[in-house]
Amino acid sequence: MSTGRGEAMKVRFSASPAAWGEWAPALRAALPEMRLEQEGPPDSFDAIIYAPGGDIDDFAPYAKARLVQSLWAGVERIVTNRTLTQPLARMVDPGLRQGMAEYCTGWALRAHLAMDRHAQDGVWRNDQVPPLASDRPVAVLGMGELGRAAAGMLGGIGFPVTGVSASGRAVPGVDVRPIDQLDQVLGRAQILICLLPDTPQTGNLLDARRLALLPQGTWIINPGRGTLIDDQALLQALDRGRPAHAVLDVFRTEPLPAEHAFWHHPAVTVTPHIAAATRPATAAPVVAENLRRAMAGRPLLHLVDRAKGY
Ligand code: NDP
């Protein structure tokens, strides 16, 4: 691909040092005509590929860049950067969708089938037959790319899924409610999956009052962001046995500090932000397509709404 000035497109890669070895071959294979570099004069680059952990804090000198393409779906660490005036695209790719749907479904089935109770522990405890999926209401907060993927897989198994989004926009096969009906949705959710972005509006959305609305026995699964739930309120609610359990993949501080109560609470399962990784094999073609669009002046994919923050 040429920039139209007879030169190859030059792209700056800014992510953690470890990411370069993983990403560079896949990105170059997806877009062989691009010159992908880790350094160089800022005003020489046509686009930036970005992930947290990189070395760019000030985007202003990258005056020629037509696109900043995030390798992450969550963009809360970059969206408030005032030096960033270039179009910002977030990561949406099939691997992320599939990974997140599998994560949510796997942990939802652990809750639904009471695997912890029924796995062999030396006691013949056959007094409780789990209900079928069709009798187990699931709520998914966030009906974006990942929330819809999770809802689709869970609905395919037979769970009745209610979705919640800012707009309440319709999604086939899901009973979607706008955010002002959140309290009613929480009141029926036996499995609650949080897939909202981290924005000023979603911080501590699940506070003490809302946690108290959940029915007895509910499991919370949060692969969205740690800021969505008030940590202390969750611990106190878990101490009272309601919700029954929380599976947490994301935290206010990551890695989760060794002394944090979540590590030790018997009703908390911690996973290390692995719900859905951006895999170069599936994501590099998405990045390549957006870079091609940027250079051709065509509409960009997956643009972040800077005012909304996602
Ligand atoms: P999208 O931007 O596609 O979707 C976001 C959804 O949240 C939309 O349905 C939106 O509503 C809804 N929403 C936003 N703000 C509010 C609000 N205040 N109240 C109610 N609903 C709201 O995001 P994705 O689905 O792609 O990703 C969701 C999040 O998942 C990411 O932001 C990231 O934090 C997390 N993530 C976690 C990973 C992990 O490994 N743990 C991996 C990747 C992502 P509407 O449709 O009306 O706009």
Please explain how this structure is put together.
The protein is α/β, with parallel strands linked by helices. It has 2 domains: 10-93 and 278-296, Rossmann fold; 94-270, Rossmann fold (3-Layer(aba) Sandwich), CATH 3.40.50.720. 29% of the residues lie in helices and 15% in strands. It has 9 helices and 12 strands. It has helices at 17-30, 94-112, 115-118, 145-157, 182-186, 208-211, 231-239, 261-264, 280-296, and strands spanning 10-14, 35-37, 47-50, 68-70, 88-89, 138-141, 161-165, 175-178, 191-194, 219-222, 245-248, 268-270. The strands form 2 sheets. A 7-stranded parallel beta sheet has the order 8-7-6-9-10-11-12. The protein has a 5-stranded parallel beta sheet with strand order 2-1-3-4-5, covered by helices on one side. Helix 1 (17-30) crosses helix 9 and helix 2 (94-112) crosses helix 4 (145-157). The protein starts with 9 loop residues before the first strand and ends in a 14-residue tail after the last helix. The model has no long low-confidence stretch (mean pLDDT 96). Bound molecules: NADPH dihydro-nicotinamide-adenine-dinucleotide phosphate (NDP). NADPH dihydro-nicotinamide-adenine-dinucleotide phosphate (NDP) binds next to helix 4 and strand 7. NADPH dihydro-nicotinamide-adenine-dinucleotide phosphate binds next to helix 4 and strand 7.
